[in-house]
Specification:
Blueprint lengths: L2 H13 L8 E2 H10 L8 H9 L4 E3 L5 E4 L4 H12 L21 H15 L3 H22 L16 H10 L9 H17 L7 H5 L4 H12 L3
Antiparallel strand pairs: 1-3, 2-3
């Protein structure tokens, strides 16, 4: 993205933030770009000259300020709004493939999205916890689908912990896991538990990368067992 296009995006975000200004000066834009290292030291006078020639901008009410041209606001809103609302921002499936069907279950899709989003943004502790959570949720779905709903609950009707869920799944009473699935389950549990509870352990990228392809294979297997 060029310096001018970055400035255009900043003007859109600033003027669409609800309580934000109706226009933005070239100096204000240059300061943000420099402070956030979006560019080197930006010459705001030169930037102002470029912005004054941009077809999607018009002069604002303040001296040296700009705002989005009304006719171009819809197209720019469509382009930038997905980044303003992070809940709908694009997320690459670098950790757990979106090609694995989760049956359209919204809660499962959301946890996968958070695992992938955390990995993409280098929040590896969060990625580990979300990966653990997804596998636990899928294991519960698989055991319940196989008729084990009562077996995976205690006397109070609460779901048992992941260690016990793994033990039930390995018993072969309800589901038949592949030869490698128990090992993958244990690895995902271990790193997820470490990320959430270990006082000194910090998950690194290499730790998450070491989970695959086992993690993806496990998610696909459990989803299939749950008939998702």
């Amino acid at each position: 993205m060029t310096e001018t296009e970055s400035a255009l995006a900043l003007i859109w975000f600033a003027t669409h933030s609800g309580s934000g200004p109706s226009d933005v000066t070239a100096k204000e834009v240059a300061t943000v770009m420099t402070d956030h290292r979006m560019s080197g030291n930006v010459n705001y006078s030169r930037l102002g000259q470029k912005l004054s020639k941009h077809s999607q901008l018009v002069r604002g009410s303040r001296v040296g300020s700009f705002r989005i041209r009304a006719a171009d606001d819809p197209s720019l809103s469509q382009r930038f709004s997905q980044h303003a609302d992070l809940s709908s921002a694009p997320v690459a499936d670098l950790l757990i493939s979106n090609g694995i069907s989760l049956g359209g279950r919204r809660h499962l899709e959301q946890v996968r999205r958070e695992a992938n989003g955390s990995y993409e943004r280098a929040f590896y502790n969060a990625a580990a916890v979300m990966s653990r959570r997804l596998t636990e949720m899928l294991l519960i779905e698989a055991l319940e689908a196989a008729g084990g709903a009562e077996r995976i609950r205690d006397a109070s009707g609460n779901l048992i912990g992941l260690s016990d869920l793994i033990a039930v799944s390995r018993s072969g009473l309800f589901v038949k896991l592949s030869r490698t699935a128990p090992t993958h389950l244990q690895k995902v549990k271990e790193i997820g538990d470490g990320a959430a509870h270990h006082r000194h352990f910090i998950v690194a990228k290499k730790d998450m990368d070491a989970l695959n392809p086992g993690l993806s294979m496990l998610v696909a297997e459990l989803a299939a067992l749950a008939s998702l």
